[in-house]
Amino acid sequence: MQTNFTLAQLADPNLAEADKILRACVHCGFCTATCPTYVLDGNELDSPRGRIYLIKDMLEHNRPATADVVTHIDRCLSCLACMTTCPSGVHYMHLVDHARAHIEETYRRPPPERALRAILAALMPYPRRFRLALQAARLAKPFAPVAAAVGLKRLAAMLALSPWRTPHRPVEPQTFPALGRRRGRVALLAGCVNDLLLPAINAATIGVLTRHGIEVVVPASAGCCGSLLHHMGREREALHQARGNIDAWSAIEGLDAILINASGCGTTVKDYGYMLRSDAVYGARAARIAGLAKDISEYLAGLPLTTTNGRGTGLVVAYHSACSLQHGQRINRQPKELLAKLGFEVKDVPDGHLCCGSAGTYNILQPDIARRLRDRKVGTIERLRPDVIAAGNIGCIMQIAAGTALPTVHTIELIDWATGGPCPPTLREHRPRAAVSRFDDRGLSGARSGVVAH
Predict the structure, then answer these.
(1) What domains, with CATH codes, occur in the chain?
(2) Which of 258, 187, 176, 186 lies closest to 210 in space, CA to CA?
(3) Which helix (H) or strand (E) holds 415?
(4) Burial category of 1 from C-beta neighbours within 10 Å (exposed 0-12, middle 13-18, buried 19 and up)
(5) What digits encode the pLDDT tens for the residues 205-223?
(6) Per DSSP, what are the bridge partners of residue 391?
(7) Does pTM surpass 0.70?
(8) Got the DSSP string for 70-89?
(9) Sorting pLDDT into bands at 50, 70 and 90, what band is 163?
(10) What number is the average pLDDT over the span 57-66?
(11) How do strand 174-176 and strand 214-218 relate by DSSP bridges?
(12) Pick from 226, 307, 312: which is nearest to 262 by CA?
């Protein structure tokens, strides 16, 4: 693609990078076939190619974002399926992230939308604040249908996604010692919402690791990875969060890896080196941290896991590959291979490259599109007739679970169960037909080194 940036514009490293990305695009249109929003409605401007043209025009002419441009960029899920498909290697992720930052700087959204985004940015990355918000949401949750009926679709989406249960407390910063001989030492990104909504994910992660000789450190000063704010275009705040994590993890000695069990967060942490490439103080440190970051399945693939009492044998698992894992991190085989080795019968989901509609806060900000994508995804999964659905990202788990009666769990919960941990809470509650006789008699009441599994 030919571009027309001036030399003065190209002096800006962000615009220079955008120019490089734009020039790689050859207009082939392969990306349209795998773009969820284009597949739904066939609108060229809601395809990666269409958005690239909008971004090019906006950046080349140094124009403030218009309402039309914002509409189509906002509809992008950042699922990155286009990057997997693109034969020319167009790095769409960095381009659309830059466009979002430009939108945030130059476009004034309508007051209701501005307020909603400010609320999400002020609450979700901060577990203690978000916990209070979830407690309040429990009281209002019965009114979600009323909110939808009067046109408050985003409020209805927030209430519908909030849990009925009282949110749990975040895991306390501490070190979980390896059981037996220590074979490694890792830091765990506990995540903003994991412990509040599905604490069994972190409990299972810590259980599998410590049981296999890995010491796990949850540092006191690590916080949100910055992903949520980054994808809302709030770049200054996102980079502040990234720097805080870099400081926290750099202070821990002897780390073999930084492990992440929310794949959306993992994609962002692995991009820290790029995000802070121009920072004289943090650039090199960010690149080092990005190099240490691994998805939990990526790390476990290198450990000799041991099954316990044939758990999982014959249990049919529909594996939903989160977009941030398969497209953002290019991790496809490890989760499925781990499950298969532990005795589960793993089935790929048809059209698995298409997003489920979660995408961070997308299912709140774009509820109609998110619902259509969820229903499409659930339909393809249910046709497989699985006993359980597994995914590597809490956003996908919450999104899919809202549209199906099938139990939906994190991949690590099944791995934990198969290697000696308790049965995943959601799986126990649903009593899938193939697993009834193999439930762990110990139940879910026990705490694992201070981490409650239920």
Answers:
(1) 7-106 (1.10.1060.10), 111-161 (no CATH), 174-300 (3.40.50), 316-452 (3.40.50.1860)
(2) 176
(3) helix 411-418
(4) middle
(5) 999 999 999 999 999 888 9
(6) 320, 410
(7) yes
(8) HHHHHT-----HHHHH-TT-
(9) confident
(10) 95
(11) antiparallel
(12) 226
